[in-house]
Structure to design on (674 residues):
């Protein structure tokens, strides 16, 4: 079959994706074909969707998570049709920030947003999105051209430790594809015009909970059922699943669900150990089914540290495609630990999907820490500061051993292990 | 191709899906009729990996060699629209689904021997990826074990076919149901392939360890079960195996 041949050769030539001509595009959308129920005739029109790019590894269509550093760790970005699960940090500070970056990226790229929350009104969430950094002078005013260019991070030359300059940078520097991944200024708010120009749908659970159910009772909690129906409605009506082939411009639907699994959604897995243990997992399964058959990507933040039944966490991990855990140092004893003084927390990449492939991109670095500066959220390899004291006290040695045991396991899908030895 | 066997694939701390892809392509190449209950990934995913391994799932599906139940896509249909006839994934709609009978009926129907003298396939094969998902979707471990028991009676004993199923081993997380399922299946299976992560942690060149265990569940355990251990590295189109410690990266 000719289609098979194109697919095969496309998979072989991983080449340079950005400069690749239509061949790569044809390949990536041939792969999209069986997922979206659209017809073959729409492929010729599917040249490119704003804010997406094909993956170097397998031609999968990727969108940016809003954090170029995280995109790099996930193998280029978040694959369309998959779920990114963020395990929240203890006080939900950094995970809500990542959530906002994800939504802001959607607005900049012109994607449609679907924001679901049980805690805050989606309109309020959108008002608080960070402003994008636009040009070199970090000016707030912009025009249509400038908002598509990324800022050039000033490349500070190292004078003394110049050898370290050769180490690979974790964050993505200025990249040739100017429309993928932007930097945001966390201290400023997104301009109102941009928010109003964007298309978004909000699902605020307290508002919707009063309407009647029109589905047979199954073991899903009420909130999840309504959310699934809402998402499915949007996907169907706006044609993200290819059901409306007359639409000229295909677009991506970015779904953001905040604090899934918390008691505010009506789910009691955070309160008791023997609660409704299947509601959340069923929800995730049907959600993933919806995503696989439409042009959408989803980010979910979940307070996994509150879930009482640990088995649910492992099931949830197995049901999600990409899982990233955040651990912030606020309030823990690590805040004052001199080892971690440069960073705000640790980031654990717990799972990366193997889509259309036997293998996947995994970074070599397992110990990652993040740092939030005003204009930049960086993720770096955790560097232990040099041990300068002559007499090393016993307490600090123990501190060293404890976190290194925790850092060892790293990416659980590849190989778990308790010891901090590499093979 | 041996007949009448139940093979259990198990992964612990790592991803054992490469084993599923291998068995799928193996049985398709061996000209067997395959019923694939794919609950965890979409059809195109298996198709693309299958092409790398040398089989085309679309061709197999069209000519009837492969019956594919795409869990993710069908779940959306089942969940949002009431179905006229019983659907294999009907338990998604029900609050307290007792058993997996509709799914079993689907499998039985799919692997029914064709009598009209067409291209006769070799033994029927049931492939399930994966069973742990059924636990997440609300079925109890006993219901899943019953389902496998019924399938075994039909596929392995009556039709002399094979069953291959993947179960995740949750390791030290206290997933009781999963442990029950895993132990129950381990006792019933003839061959256990267990993919584990390395005890020393992550390594770029050796992705994990595969433990192979041959069992004879029906006979008394006077003869010892044989077992072998290999370490492996997954590459783009294949998986390379080597003895412990003999990774090319180390030598």
């Amino acid at each position: 079959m000719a289609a098979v041949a194109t697919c095969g050769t496309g998979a072989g030539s991983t080449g340079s994706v950005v400069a690749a001509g239509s061949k790569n595009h044809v390949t990536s959308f041939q792969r999209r074909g069986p997922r979206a129920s659209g017809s073959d005739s729409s492929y010729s029109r599917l040249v490119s969707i704003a804010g997406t790019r094909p993956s170097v590894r397998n031609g999968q269509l990727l969108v940016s998570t809003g954090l170029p550093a995280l995109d790099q760790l996930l193998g280029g970005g978040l694959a369309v049709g998959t779920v990114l699960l963020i395990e929240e940090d203890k006080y939900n500070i950094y995970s809500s920030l990542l959530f906002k970056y994800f939504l802001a990226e959607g607005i900049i790229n012109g994607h449609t947003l679907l924001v679901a929350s049980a805690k805050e009104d989606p309109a309020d969430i959108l008002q608080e999105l960070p402003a994008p950094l636009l040009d070199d002078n970090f000016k707030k005013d912009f025009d249509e051209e400038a908002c598509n260019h990324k800022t050039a991070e000033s490349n500070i030359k190292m004078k003394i430790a110049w050898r370290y300059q050769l180490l690979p940078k974790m964050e993505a520097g200025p990249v040739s594809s100017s429309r993928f991944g932007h930097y945001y200024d966390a201290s400023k708010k997104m301009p109102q015009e941009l928010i109003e120009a964007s298309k978004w749908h909000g699902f605020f659970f307290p508002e919707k909970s009063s309407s009647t159910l029109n589905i047979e009772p199954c073991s899903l909690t009420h909130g999840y059922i309504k959310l699934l129906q809402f998402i499915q409605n949007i996907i169907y009506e706006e044609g993200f699943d290819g059901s409306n082939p007359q639409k000229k411009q295909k677009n991506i639907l970015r779904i953001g669900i905040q604090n899934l699994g918390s008691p505010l959604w009506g789910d009691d897995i955070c309160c008791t150990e023997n609660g409704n243990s299947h509601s959340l997992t069923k929800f995730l399964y049907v959600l993933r089914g919806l995503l696989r058959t439409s042009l959408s990507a989803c980010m979910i933040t979940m307070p996994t540290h509150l879930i009482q039944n640990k088995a649910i966490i492992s099931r949830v991990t197995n049901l999600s495609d990409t899982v990233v855990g955040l651990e912030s140092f606020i309030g823990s004893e690590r805040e004052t630990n001199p080892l971690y003084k440069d960073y705000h927390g640790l980031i654990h990449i717990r799972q990366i999907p193997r889509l259309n492939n036997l293998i996947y991109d995994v970074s070599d670095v397992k110990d990652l820490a993040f740092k939030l500066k005003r204009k930049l959220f960086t993720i770096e390899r955790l560097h232990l500061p040099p041990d300068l004291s002559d007499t090393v006290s016993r307490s600090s040695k123990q501190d060293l051993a404890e976190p290194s045991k925790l850092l060892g396991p790293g990416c659980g899908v590849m190989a778990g292990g308790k010891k901090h030895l590499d093979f | 191709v041996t007949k009448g066997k139940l093979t259990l694939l198990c992964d612990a701390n790592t991803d054992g899906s490469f084993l599923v892809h291998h068995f799928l392509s193996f049985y398709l190449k061996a000209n067997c009729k395959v019923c694939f209950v794919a609950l965890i990934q979409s059809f195109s995913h298996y198709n693309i990996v299958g092409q790398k391994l040398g089989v085309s799932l679309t061709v197999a599906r069209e000519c009837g060699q492969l019956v594919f139940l795409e869990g993710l896509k069908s779940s959306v249909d089942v969940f949002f629209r009431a179905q006229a006839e019983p659907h294999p994934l009907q338990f998604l709609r029900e609050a307290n689904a007792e058993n997996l009978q509709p799914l079993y009926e689907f499998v039985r129907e799919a692997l029914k021997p064709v009598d009209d003298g067409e291209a006769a396939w070799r033994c029927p094969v049931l492939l399930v990826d994966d069973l742990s998902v059924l636990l997440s979707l609300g079925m109890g471990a006993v219901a899943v074990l019953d389902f496998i028991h019924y399938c075994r009676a039909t596929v392995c004993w009556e039709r002399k076919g094979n069953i291959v199923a993947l179960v995740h081993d949750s390791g030290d997380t206290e997933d009781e149901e999963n442990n029950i399922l895993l132990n129950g299946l381990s006792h019933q299976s003839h061959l256990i392939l267990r993919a584990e992560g390395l005890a020393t942690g992550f390594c770029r060149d050796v992705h994990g360890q595969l433990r192979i265990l041959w069992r004879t569940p029906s006979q008394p355990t006077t003869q010892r079960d044989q077992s072998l251990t290999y370490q492996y590295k997954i590459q783009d189109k294949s998986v390379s195996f080597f003895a412990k410690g003999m990774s090319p990266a180390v030598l």
In short: Confidence is low (pLDDT under 50) at residues 1-47, 136-155, 170-178, 391-423 of chain A. The first strand of chain A starts at residue 52 and ends at 54. Chain A touches chain B through 60 residues (CB under 8 Å).
